[in-house]
Amino acid sequence: MTTPDTTTATEWQHVATLVAWLDRHNGDGPHETALRPLKLSEETGEVMRAYIGMTGQNPRKGITHTPGDVAAELCDVILSAMTALHRFTDDPEATFTATVRARNERLTALIARESGRCEAAHRDDPTGCEGAQDAVRIIDQHGTETPACVHHGARLYASLDKPLVHTGTVHRAALAVYYRAQSTPPFAWHTERR
Ligand SMILES: [Zn+2]
Fold first, then answer.
1. C-beta atoms surrounding 34 within 10 Å
2. What's the 64 CA to ligand 1 centre distance in angstroms?
3. Ligand 1 centroid vs 98 CA: distance in angstroms?
4. Which pLDDT tens digit goes with each residue over 145-162?
5. Which pLDDT belongs to residue 1?
6. If 120 and its partner were Cys, which of 78, 94, 156, 180 is the partner (CB 3.0–4.6 Å)?
7. d(CA 137, ligand 1 centre) in Å
8. End-to-end CA distance of the chain
9. From the CA of 179, how far away is ligand 1's center (Å)?
10. Which of 129, 144, 143 lies closest to 177, judged by CA?
11. Is 186 left (phi over 0), alpha (psi -120 to 50) or beta?
């Protein structure tokens, strides 16, 4: 086994080292599997304890914690969840990344609906849509599909690495987006702003 370099260990490297150490000492039976998520509850309790200590809610104790203490306890919750995750998936990092991506897609769609523009419209891009908001579908290198109007579809296409464009509800719109993207700089809204 190689010794991990603690000065440059990433979050996931740290957690992998911790999991290996825990497994060595506690084994990998069903009891241990149950205890890993249970540990999260304990850490969540620590967050609340620090928060209560920060507010001085107990007059007998006064203010015993700082916002920094609460922040550190919250970090422990995150690390405990990352540790427990190892018991339920073979690739915790990939599982986490895929989950964040899925959540982000949902959030992006929600924000787009609120703004009244197509999902391809970048939040920093102030321009309005052009035509149907699902004229095309832009597919990124991970296979994520984004419905788009012709205008924002071309801008998104020009900003992505190895994108694809498929026709949505408007006949031949994919071709229009493809050609328009050829003369569109990546992240066009940045250069227009000032
Ligand atoms: Zn649009």
1. 11
2. 52
3. 26
4. 999 999 999 999 999 999
5. 47
6. 156
7. 11
8. 54
9. 17
10. 129
11. beta
Query: pTM of the full predicted structure?
Result: 0.71
C-beta neighbour count of 3 within 10 angstroms: 6
Cα separation of 194 and 190, whole Å? 8
Cα(194) to ligand 1 centroid in Å equals 22
Residues surrounding ion ligand 1 at CB below 5 Å: 118, 121, 129, 149, 152
Q: How far is the CA of 5 from the centre of ligand 1 (A)?
A: 47
C-beta of residue 86 within 8 angstroms of C-beta of residue 19 = yes
**Centre of ligand 1 from the C-alpha of residue 150, in Å:** 7
Q: What is the pLDDT of residues 61-112, one digit of tens each?
A: 999 999 999 999 999 999 999 999 999 999 999 999 999 999 998 998 888 8
Domain ranges of the chain: 11-88, 118-193
Give the residues across from 137 on adjacent strands: 147, 166
**Type of residue numbered 68:** G
Interval 107-143: pLDDT, tens: 988 888 888 999 999 989 999 999 999 999 999 998 8
Measured in Å, residue 132 CA sits from the centre of ligand 1 at: 8
Tokens of residue 95, six digits: 């599982």
